[in-house]
Amino acid sequence: MTEIRGKRPAAVLPLAVAGLVLSLFPIVYLHVASVGELSPISHTISDYIFVANGSGLLAVTALSLAAASVALLAVLVRRGLPRRGPATVLMGLWAAGLTVAAVFPTDPTGTPTSFSGAVHRYAGAVMFASLPLAGWLISRRFISSTSVRRFSVAAGITSVAFMVSHVTLTYQGAVLLGLFERVLFALLYGLLFALAAAVARREARS
Questions:
Q1: In the chain, at which residue ranges do the beta strands (DSSP E only) sit?
Q2: How far is CA 150 from its chain centroid?
Q3: Nearest to 158 by CA among 138, 134, 128
Q4: Strand duo 174-175 + 170-171: pairing
Q5: How far is the C-alpha of 191 from the C-alpha of 155, rounded, in Å?
Q6: CB 142 within 8 A of CB 76
Q7: Are the beta carbons of 105 and 44 closer than 8 angstroms?
Q8: Quick check: 102 and 116 in contact, CB under 8 A?
Q9: Which residues on neighbouring strands pair with residue 171, listed in sequence order?
Q10: Fewer Cβ close by (within 10 Å): the C or N end of the chain?
């Protein structure tokens, strides 16, 4: 396993963690504020743009999460992760997918797919596939972390389930899109926090 070496990125790692925490506040607020208006089982997180102040708050979550991911990636690169390696590219695709999905909003449920809606959907597919793969590669080749590996595997499986739920899975007549997406996001957050913790532990030992 490759050792991650480099200058101590003392200021960048806390910024990455702060960005992850900041990104949680708007989306948690939207879940609470939209009770009775949107279903967490059948509506996707993207549907929060249709509630009051939802568009701006969702953009804050997506862009903060993207910025935090880039900061975390910068820490990993400074510690030896190859700049042009597959894990770096995949984490970059995750952050880019978040940004594109924020710029191109989804369509209202039941309406024809617009250009913006199509871009949003493909950006989501890219980002949901990219981060679990990136985490798995990093845990296998650069940071020996059981928690990172487990979150990566669980997120990868849930990502596949989320994609399948677009077509086939229902529960009492309600499509399970929202449920699978929320579980997936929880796992992806867990993966990012686990990566940050693994880097912090290595920093403490170096």
A1: 170-171, 174-175
A2: 16
A3: 128
A4: antiparallel
A5: 8
A6: yes
A7: no
A8: no
A9: 174
A10: N
The first and second tokens of residue 202, run together, are 């290595």
pLDDT tens for the chain, residues 1 to 206: 444 444 455 578 999 999 999 999 999 999 999 988 888 888 889 999 999 889 999 999 999 999 999 999 999 998 888 888 999 999 999 999 999 999 999 888 778 889 999 999 999 999 999 999 999 999 988 888 899 999 999 999 999 888 877 666 555 555 778 888 999 999 999 999 999 999 988 777 76
3-state secondary structure of 7: coil
Q: What angle do CA 112, 116, 119 make, to 5 degrees?
A: 105
Residues 39 and 150: their CA atoms lie apart, in Å, by 29
pTM of the model: 0.90
Closest-CA residue to 104 (of 134, 59, 71):
59
Return the percent helix, strand and coil in the chain, to nearest 5. Answer: 70, 0, 25
Q: Do residues 9 and 174 lie in contact, with contact meaning Cβ atoms separated by under 8 Å?
A: no
- Residue owning tokens 């880097």: 199
Q: In whole angstroms, what is the distance from residue 9 CA to residue 17 CA?
A: 13
Q: Which residue, chain included where needed, has tokens 């597919």? A: 125
